[in-house]
Amino acid sequence: MHSFGYRANALLTFAITILAFMCGIASFSDSLNSPSPSVQVQVSNINWFQKQPNGNDEVSMTLNITADLQSLFTWNTKQVFVFVAAEYETPKHSLNQISLWDGIIPSKEHAKFWIHTSNKYRFIDQGSNLRGKEFNLTVHWHIMPKTGKMLVDKIVIPGYRLPEEYR
Ligand SMILES: *[C@@H]1O[C@H](CO)[C@@H](O)[C@H](O)[C@H]1NC(C)=O
Ligand SMILES: *[C@@H]1O[C@H](CO)[C@@H](O)[C@H](O)[C@H]1NC(C)=O
Protein backbone atom coordinates (compact mmCIF):
# COMPACT_ATOMS: atom_id res chain seq x y z
CA MET A 1 0.00 0.00 0.00
CA HIS A 2 1.58 3.30 -1.03
CA SER A 3 0.55 5.96 1.42
CA PHE A 4 0.28 9.61 0.48
CA GLY A 5 3.41 10.32 2.55
CA TYR A 6 5.41 7.77 0.59
CA ARG A 7 4.36 9.24 -2.75
CA ALA A 8 5.04 12.80 -1.62
CA ASN A 9 8.47 11.70 -0.50
CA ALA A 10 9.20 9.98 -3.81
CA LEU A 11 8.11 13.12 -5.66
CA LEU A 12 10.36 15.28 -3.52
CA THR A 13 13.34 12.97 -4.12
CA PHE A 14 12.64 13.11 -7.84
CA ALA A 15 12.43 16.93 -7.75
CA ILE A 16 15.71 17.18 -5.87
CA THR A 17 17.40 14.85 -8.33
CA ILE A 18 16.20 17.00 -11.25
CA LEU A 19 17.35 20.15 -9.47
CA ALA A 20 20.80 18.71 -8.78
CA PHE A 21 21.02 17.65 -12.42
CA MET A 22 20.08 21.14 -13.64
CA CYS A 23 22.65 22.74 -11.34
CA GLY A 24 25.22 20.35 -12.71
CA ILE A 25 24.32 21.33 -16.27
CA ALA A 26 24.46 25.01 -15.32
CA SER A 27 27.96 24.86 -13.90
CA PHE A 28 29.08 22.54 -16.70
CA SER A 29 27.86 24.98 -19.33
CA ASP A 30 29.81 27.70 -17.48
CA SER A 31 32.98 25.69 -17.84
CA LEU A 32 32.35 25.54 -21.60
CA ASN A 33 32.20 29.33 -21.81
CA SER A 34 35.69 30.48 -22.78
CA PRO A 35 35.56 34.20 -22.08
CA SER A 36 37.75 36.75 -23.82
CA PRO A 37 37.81 39.73 -21.46
CA SER A 38 39.94 42.74 -22.30
CA VAL A 39 41.44 45.17 -19.84
CA GLN A 40 43.83 48.09 -20.26
CA VAL A 41 45.29 49.87 -17.27
CA GLN A 42 47.43 52.98 -17.55
CA VAL A 43 49.11 54.81 -14.71
CA SER A 44 48.12 58.26 -15.91
CA ASN A 45 49.75 60.14 -13.04
CA ILE A 46 51.94 59.71 -9.96
CA ASN A 47 50.15 62.12 -7.62
CA TRP A 48 52.78 61.95 -4.92
CA PHE A 49 55.50 59.57 -3.72
CA GLN A 50 56.83 59.82 -0.17
CA LYS A 51 58.71 58.16 2.63
CA GLN A 52 56.50 58.16 5.71
CA PRO A 53 57.94 59.16 9.13
CA ASN A 54 58.00 55.43 10.05
CA GLY A 55 60.21 54.70 7.04
CA ASN A 56 57.65 53.02 4.80
CA ASP A 57 57.23 54.14 1.20
CA GLU A 58 53.84 55.26 -0.01
CA VAL A 59 52.73 56.26 -3.47
CA SER A 60 49.48 57.71 -4.76
CA MET A 61 48.70 57.22 -8.42
CA THR A 62 45.88 57.80 -10.85
CA LEU A 63 44.76 54.81 -12.85
CA ASN A 64 42.93 54.78 -16.14
CA ILE A 65 41.11 51.44 -16.35
CA THR A 66 39.30 50.43 -19.52
CA ALA A 67 37.57 47.05 -19.38
CA ASP A 68 35.22 44.89 -21.34
CA LEU A 69 34.28 41.95 -19.10
CA GLN A 70 30.96 41.22 -20.77
CA SER A 71 32.10 37.81 -21.97
CA LEU A 72 32.49 36.67 -18.34
CA PHE A 73 28.73 36.80 -17.93
CA THR A 74 26.55 33.80 -18.72
CA TRP A 75 22.95 33.18 -17.69
CA ASN A 76 24.38 31.49 -14.59
CA THR A 77 26.43 34.51 -13.44
CA LYS A 78 25.22 36.34 -10.35
CA GLN A 79 27.94 38.99 -10.27
CA VAL A 80 31.64 39.51 -10.88
CA PHE A 81 34.09 40.83 -8.33
CA VAL A 82 37.09 42.51 -9.91
CA PHE A 83 40.23 43.97 -8.38
CA VAL A 84 43.40 45.58 -9.65
CA ALA A 85 46.60 44.85 -7.73
CA ALA A 86 50.21 45.96 -7.94
CA GLU A 87 52.66 43.06 -7.70
CA TYR A 88 56.37 43.48 -7.14
CA GLU A 89 59.42 41.75 -5.72
CA THR A 90 61.47 42.83 -2.71
CA PRO A 91 64.59 41.26 -1.17
CA LYS A 92 62.38 39.77 1.60
CA HIS A 93 59.41 38.56 -0.45
CA SER A 94 59.32 37.29 -4.00
CA LEU A 95 55.71 38.45 -4.31
CA ASN A 96 54.18 41.50 -2.71
CA GLN A 97 50.58 42.09 -3.75
CA ILE A 98 48.74 45.31 -3.00
CA SER A 99 45.13 45.82 -3.98
CA LEU A 100 44.65 49.28 -5.47
CA TRP A 101 41.06 49.26 -6.65
CA ASP A 102 38.10 46.88 -6.65
CA GLY A 103 34.50 46.78 -7.69
CA ILE A 104 31.46 44.55 -8.03
CA ILE A 105 29.90 44.28 -11.46
CA PRO A 106 26.24 43.39 -10.99
CA SER A 107 25.35 42.59 -14.59
CA LYS A 108 26.55 42.26 -18.15
CA GLU A 109 25.24 45.76 -18.93
CA HIS A 110 27.74 47.17 -16.43
CA ALA A 111 30.66 45.00 -17.53
CA LYS A 112 31.99 47.40 -20.14
CA PHE A 113 33.37 50.43 -18.36
CA TRP A 114 35.99 53.11 -18.18
CA ILE A 115 37.19 54.57 -14.91
CA HIS A 116 39.75 57.22 -14.10
CA THR A 117 40.53 57.06 -10.38
CA SER A 118 43.28 57.46 -7.84
CA ASN A 119 44.07 54.27 -5.91
CA LYS A 120 41.15 53.40 -3.60
CA TYR A 121 43.42 51.47 -1.18
CA ARG A 122 46.77 52.78 0.00
CA PHE A 123 49.89 51.63 -1.85
CA ILE A 124 52.35 51.29 1.03
CA ASP A 125 55.50 49.19 1.12
CA GLN A 126 56.64 47.93 4.53
CA GLY A 127 60.11 49.34 3.98
CA SER A 128 61.70 51.69 1.52
CA ASN A 129 61.70 49.50 -1.54
CA LEU A 130 59.60 51.47 -3.98
CA ARG A 131 62.04 53.93 -5.59
CA GLY A 132 62.62 52.90 -9.19
CA LYS A 133 60.69 49.69 -8.48
CA GLU A 134 59.37 47.68 -11.41
CA PHE A 135 55.91 46.31 -10.88
CA ASN A 136 53.09 44.52 -12.66
CA LEU A 137 49.47 45.44 -12.53
CA THR A 138 47.20 42.42 -12.35
CA VAL A 139 43.48 42.45 -12.92
CA HIS A 140 41.77 39.61 -11.04
CA TRP A 141 38.16 38.55 -11.32
CA HIS A 142 35.96 36.20 -9.31
CA ILE A 143 32.89 35.06 -11.20
CA MET A 144 30.18 34.35 -8.65
CA PRO A 145 27.65 31.95 -10.14
CA LYS A 146 24.01 31.47 -9.25
CA THR A 147 24.86 27.79 -8.82
CA GLY A 148 28.12 25.84 -8.99
CA LYS A 149 31.59 26.88 -8.06
CA MET A 150 33.25 30.26 -8.28
CA LEU A 151 35.63 30.80 -11.20
CA VAL A 152 38.77 32.85 -10.65
CA ASP A 153 41.18 34.21 -13.24
CA LYS A 154 43.43 37.18 -13.94
CA ILE A 155 45.30 39.18 -16.55
CA VAL A 156 48.88 40.32 -15.85
CA ILE A 157 50.01 43.60 -17.34
CA PRO A 158 53.78 43.77 -16.82
CA GLY A 159 56.30 46.54 -17.22
CA TYR A 160 55.43 49.47 -14.95
CA ARG A 161 58.03 51.38 -12.97
CA LEU A 162 57.88 53.82 -10.06
CA PRO A 163 59.93 57.06 -10.11
CA GLU A 164 63.54 57.04 -8.87
CA GLU A 165 62.90 59.98 -6.52
CA TYR A 166 60.26 60.88 -3.95
CA ARG A 167 58.05 63.74 -5.06
C1 LIG B 1 42.27 56.09 -20.81
O1 LIG B 1 42.58 55.00 -21.65
C2 LIG B 1 41.81 54.97 -22.84
C3 LIG B 1 42.10 53.67 -23.58
O2 LIG B 1 43.31 53.09 -23.26
C4 LIG B 1 42.12 56.22 -23.67
O3 LIG B 1 41.34 56.21 -24.85
C5 LIG B 1 41.78 57.44 -22.84
O4 LIG B 1 42.15 58.62 -23.57
C6 LIG B 1 42.52 57.43 -21.52
N1 LIG B 1 42.03 58.53 -20.70
C7 LIG B 1 42.83 59.28 -19.93
C8 LIG B 1 42.15 60.37 -19.16
O5 LIG B 1 44.04 59.09 -19.85
C1 LIG C 1 55.65 40.43 -13.72
O1 LIG C 1 55.29 39.88 -14.95
C2 LIG C 1 56.35 39.19 -15.61
C3 LIG C 1 55.85 38.78 -16.98
O2 LIG C 1 54.60 38.15 -16.92
C4 LIG C 1 56.79 38.00 -14.75
O3 LIG C 1 57.86 37.33 -15.36
C5 LIG C 1 57.21 38.51 -13.38
O4 LIG C 1 57.52 37.41 -12.54
C6 LIG C 1 56.10 39.33 -12.75
N1 LIG C 1 56.58 39.90 -11.50
C7 LIG C 1 55.97 39.67 -10.33
C8 LIG C 1 56.57 40.32 -9.13
O5 LIG C 1 54.97 38.97 -10.22
Task: Please supply descriptive tags for the structure shown above.
alpha+beta; Immunoglobulin-like; four-stranded antiparallel beta sheet; 1 helix
Protein architecture, described:
By secondary structure, the chain is an alpha+beta fold. It has two domains: 1-32; 35-161, Immunoglobulin-like, CATH 2.60.40. It is built from one helix and eight strands. The strands form two sheets. Strands 1, 2, 5 and 6 form a four-stranded antiparallel sheet that branches. It has a four-stranded antiparallel sheet with strand order 4-3-7-8, with no helix packed on it. Strand 1 (38-51) and strand 2 form a beta hairpin. It is elongated and about 85 Å long. Bound molecules: 2-acetamido-2-deoxy-beta-D-glucopyranose (2 copies). It holds the Pfam family SPC22. Keywords: Endoplasmic reticulum, Membrane, Signal, Signal-anchor, Transmembrane, Transmembrane helix. It is found in: Endoplasmic reticulum membrane.
Instruction: Give a short account of the largest sheet.
Output: 4 strands, antiparallel
Q: What fraction of residues sit in β-strands?
A: over 45%
Helical segment tally? 1
Bound molecules: 2-acetamido-2-deoxy-beta-D-glucopyranose
The helix/strand class is alpha+beta
Number of domains: 2
Helix content: 10-25%
Radius of gyration: 23 Å
CATH T-level topology of the largest domain: Immunoglobulin-like
Poorly predicted regions: none
Strands, total number: 8
What is the name of the CATH class of the largest domain?
Mainly Beta
One letter per element, helices H and strands E, the order comes to: HEEEEEEEE
Shape: elongated
N-end to C-end Cα span: 86 Å
| CATH architectural grouping of the largest domain | Sandwich
Mean pLDDT, to the nearest integer, reads: 91
